[in-house]
Amino acid sequence: MSDALPASPADLFTRFGIRHVINASGTETVHGASRADPSVVAAVAAVLPEWIEMTELQRAASRTIAAATGAEAGFVTGCSAAGIAVTVAAAMTGTSLAKVEALPDTTGMKDTVVLMKGHEVNYGASVSQMIRMTGARVREIGTATACSGFQLEAALEGPVACAMYVLSHHTVQSGLLPLRRFCAIAREKGVPVMVDAAAEYDWSGMLAAGATAIVVSAQKAPAGTTAGIIAGPRDFIRACMAQERGIGRPMKAGKESVAGAIAALDLWASTDHAARASAEATRLDRAAGLLSGLHGLRLEREADPAGNPFSRLMLHLDPAVAGVSAFRLGQALAEGRPKIVLRSLHADRGYLLLDVRRITDAELDHIVARIKAILAEEPGREGATAEFIPGGDLAQRAIERWLG
Description:
- The chain is α/β, with parallel strands linked by helices.
- The protein has 2 domains: 9-31 and 273-401, Aspartate Aminotransferase, domain 1; 38-270, Aspartate Aminotransferase, domain 2.
- It is 42% helix and 15% strand.
- The protein has a 7-stranded mixed beta sheet, sandwiched between helices. It has a 3-stranded antiparallel beta sheet with strand order 9-10-12. It has a two-stranded parallel ribbon with strand order 1-11.
- α2 packs antiparallel against α11, α4 (80-93) packs across α10 and α12 (273-291) packs parallel to α15.
- The longest helix is centred in the C-terminal third of the chain and has 19 residues, at 273-291.
- It starts with 8 loop residues before the first helix and ends with a helix.
């Protein structure tokens, strides 16, 4: 049939003119997150042709999540954003299906979620919106750059269902309560703590610090299929599963997502993480060597702000010398074929970040060649030193252009 689905990924790119992407930014889902290991691909391929009882598959996932995180149990949902909503809903309803079916009407329930203002971040959508879509109310505490224990203690009074803690490079990295202290205060008040740790590594450490439940993206650190992994106490995980009879229904994970998450966690558990980190550090050294000495470009290494065991390369651009701003360099890299994505969150501060964890040496060579070409081509070109445009405005423009 002429409208049959492409037979292979190569056909998909060719038939629809989709650009390949070299992702040197991180594990953002908008860029496909991570390359899946062949073992994950095989697990997904094996389950796709089969009928399966989803509760049994989720039970198997629960055992795998427990083994990987040290939690009592686990559950797989659509993505980590869904995981935020599902855990908040579970904190409000428990396993009562009457309450599950009532949401987002929270009448008679504890429906307040405490969140530090410095953790109200946008990762494509805001943390608070994922909370509010359940019917819960958000009680922000502190300021954007500071939060103290007494503020958390006061906020935990009243009809509080849970507190939300966000571990991410997106959040303010100083002046806020550390996770262990945050959890200790909440525990004294009898309030559970949900941790959004979408791209983070130390899952057992978060639980040891006192988190009731954690939410992780299966497609980020463990490089699985797109899914949200929730880990926590057995009774709470039952309440998370119960949300599929309510607001969690449109967020449910299919058999391919659950099977992929299981395979990715199995692989993560068997990985030599010290060797992986060493290989990433070697690749970062190579990137620094290849980019050193370029006119107007200063290099610096930045340890991951959230404390994960890797660093990124900071590319500081001096527009007066290089003839191109950091913002424009990021745009120019993204305009080509293949599209090259560097982390541009700080382009307004004059630098881009190069993340080498998910790229090959050949892709690194291509990135370096493009940067050198752009630095040679851009000086004097109109817009070469264009002012920074916030990501939300760029997203608005992209939406307006989408579909032509």
